[in-house]
Amino acid sequence: MKINLPQFKQLLKQSHCLDISRYEESFLGNSIKKRIQETRCDSFEDYCDYLEHTHEEGKTFCQSLHVHYSEFFRDPLTFALLERLIIPELIQKKTTNPQKEIRIWSAGCAAGQEAYSMAILLEEMITSINPGLKYRIFATDLDENVLAVARTGCYSADALKNVGLQRAETWFTRQGENYVVQPAIQQRIDFSIFDLLAEERSCPPASIYGEFDLVFCCNLLIYYQPPYRKLILEKFARCLARDAYLVTGEAERVIALAHHYREVYPSAAILRVNPRKEKPV
Questions:
Q1: So what's the pLDDT on residue 131?
Q2: Last residue of a domain, one of 64, 98, 113
Q3: Where residue 220 sits, what CATH number does that domain have?
Q4: Which residues contact 150 (CB under 8 A, 6 or more apart)?
Q5: Cα 132 from Cα 182, distance rounded (Å)
């Protein structure tokens, strides 16, 4: 099916005052094809006509561009490195640092699985290495609906497929067919709305000043055009503490390497701001 993206963008802007120029074109094309199927239109032209005359469809289409898929402990290699090397290093640093707080940002957190995965790791490792150490996780997304799910900490049994039995029994309470995250880790996470493309702020307001030891931005950059990827990566560079880490999706590692970042471990999407280049101002 042939998709005329310039025509579609113009139609959406004229009929619904919505600008989708920030999104990557192949992602947009696939999203349009999906909505054509879901609205049972026969062609791209039919869908454009439907879009022009259906007020709610513009909002529905733009909502479909917000990808919310996530999993607990999603990337085995990344979480193995976090558990064995990076978190112990952060704990050791904070032991000799008067601030004594590990600060993490989960950007584009969806329903919170990533943030809770990190909280579980931190609880386990801090308890065994330095029980007095504190940590805070700031988890942000654009969609209040998925943030509401994240705040409940309630997930289906299938959602826990990557969580080992011992961890599931320790950090979740079964309620009927679902599992709820223990309050001990729920209270360590601040879930809030934040637009990564808003130029007036570099970090979530709840974090006040940033200085994150670790930022997660997984499987999000790939959906944006290069200028917007650059804006997001420069924003992270400004709010990361010295020698802090950025974790991306595997497909985004090359993108980050081209923008002031260097990989810490070969073939792992764990990076640091390149010390040979100044942080963006």
A1: 86
A2: 64
A3: 3.40.50.150
A4: 109, 110, 111, 112, 115, 139, 141, 191
A5: 19
